[in-house]
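Researcher: We're teaching a course module on how sequence relates to structure. For the next exercise, students receive a sequence and then see the predicted structure as tokens, so they can try to spot secondary structure elements on their own. Here is the exercise chain.
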Amino acid sequence: MPTGVGRFHEDGWAHHERVFDPDACDAIVRDSARRTYPRINRELLGWATDRRWAGLVLDALGPDVRVLREQPVTKPARTAGTVPWHQDHDYLPMGPVPFLTCFLALDAVTVDRGCLWVEPGSHRHGPLPHVAAGQIRRLDTDLGARGDGGVAVPLAQGDVLAFSSLTFHRSGPNLSAHDRPAWIVQFCVADAVDERTGEPFSAGPLVASGGSWLDDGGTGMR
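Model: And here is the predicted structure for the students to work with:
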């Protein structure tokens, strides 16, 4: 069940405390450094299907779930760059249920280190138009002109910010002298469809069936 601030179904996001312990976070950092894109290595796939995701993922998505994709999102020290308000759905339109983004803090993620900001209840707007903002995208709406608005969600090491792919979110600059290591793992319902093609999404491993988390996420790895 969700812990901390935010209620997923009402607010579109939830802060889950201490999902992974410090040793696990440090191991994910090491395993991320060893990967070769675009492939995900055996160790990282094991972490993406780990049973510790079960409670928050099943609460958000229901009984049948698969991994959608994962991405390290380390923000270097003293980085002025920001990420504007956007919805993850714009990058990968999936249905019939919005997918779930899980932002795992691999070290403390404070406001000064570029934590994420969310707009509570914004998932109820549904998918909205976006426009290019350099190599990324932002909301093309008056709501995107809120500037520094929203709710900051600082995280301790091992905490997870889980939010709907329709929830407006952004991140600020990392003004600190330390990198901000984090990892995003996204999950979708097992029968998810790519709305651009109408094709079923079936590439990611099945991690839950009938409300039960599979011991190895269907990978035979953990």
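Model: If you want an answer key for the exercise: The radius of gyration is 17 Å. The chain has one domain: 8-209.
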